[in-house]
Structures are given as structure tokens and as C-alpha cells.
């Protein structure tokens, strides 16, 4: 049974992709699955949680090996590099903080997003990811305004799509715009 558990753990760890600006929710879900498998979720994430030295080293190795270099530079420094709990907290704060600086960073992602006619599925995925981040950090903008911001990113060649959405009998929501693409 122990060999099976090790095999499952190895598979779970391999399934954790590198954390980047676009995949926090997926990454967090997979890391939490790994933590639950090892019965370490509360030990790492709860304020009163504690880790043994070997658990700390193991989790530090896993967490740091699953960070894109750009994320690593933003969440790990000399104050937390030897503490898995501090690393987890830093990652969580970077991606899910309701601080205004984080709100600005997340909001700028939507503002800077460009529509690429050659990659419509990528655009849709990016919008969904950004909207999930809005929710996670507490940005609350009326859905119709967000939809108009999305529609503004479309090229004039897609004006017929924009008109179909804005003249629809349906409530104007981001999902409606993305369905029409």
C-alpha cells in the first residue's frame, strides 16, 4: 500500500505545473490536492499549523520547484526562502491579496490584454482567468461594464459580433460576449 501511495504522490506532484500569472487557480488546486494526500494541508495553510523539519524541507522543495522564475522573484526572498509556511503565505498574498496594489496589478491584466484573431480560444481563456482573479482579490465591477471592456478589445472586423451582443435581448455579461466569439 505504501508503494501505491508513493506512486500516487509522485503522479500528483508531476501534475503540478509551474505557477505563472495565468494559472494560479489550477496550480493552487493541484498543490492543495498534494497537501491533502500527505495530510499536510492544515499544517501548511492554517495559522496554528506546524511542520516538522523534514516536512518543511520537502514542501519547500516542491513549492519552489513549481514556480515560474518571474513568480519566484516576486514571492521568495531572504526572509522566507527557508520556511515553507512563509513561502505559501507569500504566494497566497501575491495572488489573492485584496490590497489596492494587487487590485491594480490584476485590473491592469484586463486593460493590457490584446485580442489576437489567430488565437481566439487563448483570448477567451485569458478573460476567464482574469475574471476569476477579479473575484479572488475582491474586485467588483458591474458585469455590463466588464463586458463593454471586453468588446472594446475586438477589432472592427468583428463589429457585427459586438452589435449582436449589445442588441441582444439577453443581459449583457462577459459570458455572453465570450460565447459569441
Average pLDDT taken over every residue: 90
Question: By helix and strand content, what is the structural category?
Answer: mainly alpha
Run of helices and strands: HHHHHHHHHHH
Termini separation (Å)?
Answer: 49 Å
Beta content comes to: under 5%
- The total count of helices amounts to 11
Low-confidence stretches: none
The coarse overall form would be elongated
Q: Main beta sheet, described?
A: none
Number of domains: 2
Radius of gyration: 20 Å
- In helices, the fraction of residues equals 55-70%
Q: What is the total tally of β strands?
A: 0
Explained architecture:
- There is one protein chain.
- The chain is mainly α and 181 residues long.
- The chain folds into two domains: 2-96, no CATH class; 100-180, no CATH class.
- The protein contains eleven helices and no strands.
- Helix 7 (100-112) runs antiparallel to helix 8 (120-137).
- 15% of the residues are buried.
- The mean pLDDT is 90.
Amino acid at each position: 500500500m505504501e508503494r501505491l501511495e508513493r506512486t500516487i504522490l509522485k503522479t500528483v506532484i508531476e501534475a503540478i505545473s509551474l505557477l505563472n500569472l495565468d494559472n494560479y487557480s489550477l496550480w493552487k488546486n493541484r498543490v492543495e490536492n498534494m497537501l491533502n494526500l500527505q495530510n499536510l494541508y492544515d499544517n501548511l495553510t492554517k495559522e496554528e499549523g506546524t511542520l516538522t523539519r523534514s516536512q518543511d524541507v520537502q514542501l519547500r522543495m516542491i513549492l519552489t520547484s513549481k514556480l515560474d522564475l518571474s513568480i519566484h522573484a516576486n514571492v521568495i526572498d531572504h526572509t522566507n526562502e527557508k520556511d515553507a509556511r512563509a513561502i505559501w503565505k507569500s504566494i497566497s498574498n501575491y495572488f489573492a491579496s485584496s490590497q489596492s496594489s494587487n487590485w491594480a496589478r490584476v485590473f491592469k491584466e484586463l486593460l493590457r490584454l490584446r485580442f489576437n484573431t489567430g488565437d481566439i480560444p487563448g483570448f477567451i481563456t485569458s478573460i476567464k482567468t482574469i475574471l476569476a482573479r477579479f473575484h479572488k482579490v475582491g474586485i467588483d465591477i458591474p458585469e455590463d461594464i466588464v463586458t463593454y471592456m471586453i468588446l472594446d478589445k475586438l477589432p472592427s472586423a468583428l463589429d457585427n459580433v459586438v452589435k449582436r451582443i449589445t442588441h441582444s435581448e439577453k443581459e449583457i455579461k462577459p459570458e455572453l460576449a465570450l460565447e459569441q466569439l
